[in-house]
Amino acid sequence: MGLADRLAAVDADIAEAARAAGVAVPTRIVVTKFHPASLVRELVELGVRDVGENRHQEAQAKAAEVDDPRLAWHFVGQLQSNKAKAVRRYAAAVHSVDRPSLVDALAADDDRDLGVFLEIDLSGEPGRGGVVPAEAAPLAERVLAAPGLSLLGVMAVAPLGEEPRPAFARLRAVSEGIRSLEPRATAISAGMSGDFREAILEGATHLRIGTAITGNRPTAG
Length: 221
Hints:
CATH superfamily: Alanine racemase
Number of helices: 9
Oligomer: single chain
Strand content: 15-25%
CATH topology: TIM Barrel
CATH class: Alpha Beta
Distance between the termini: 25 Å
Radius of gyration: 17 Å
Largest sheet: 8 strands, parallel
Strand order of the largest sheet: 7-6-5-4-3-2-1-8
Structural class: alpha/beta
């Protein structure tokens, strides 16, 4: 099955899951990690308008090579504060904001709003990215007070070894708390190739889908 067929099959599954949940079809972000810029160009010609990357060096190079105004770049990986300003230059949104220092590093008074998702740690395991749910509200307030940032909502990865839907239900509860601070922060970035159906059932508005569309990733360089 080629790229176009995989994209069509995933989009059909997304539409079916959205119908079953009685919700609008979520935004589908194609994660192109480790794939060449040529694949991004193919995706654009197939109608894709949102792509995701989780490594700054790779994302920056691809964004420069595929300089297409139709395309929005989403940074979905862990981000070091010292790379935040560079990411701000090409990204439409950062899905992995999990600490005050990163909020401060991403902020800028440059007449442009960068979309921000708060990454929520649903696992409770040390060393995992994300802010614990109890600390999400103060972090949201930090984003709301920062120049050049627009709080879109929350993001999470379902913990390994756990059924995804209950985890996404916890994320939905965090989202409801954030919306009490900022009613416009309605976005929920959740669901990947193996669990996007469960994410849709719990209100996901943005899906981060890689291998189900792009195929197996080349070996990282």
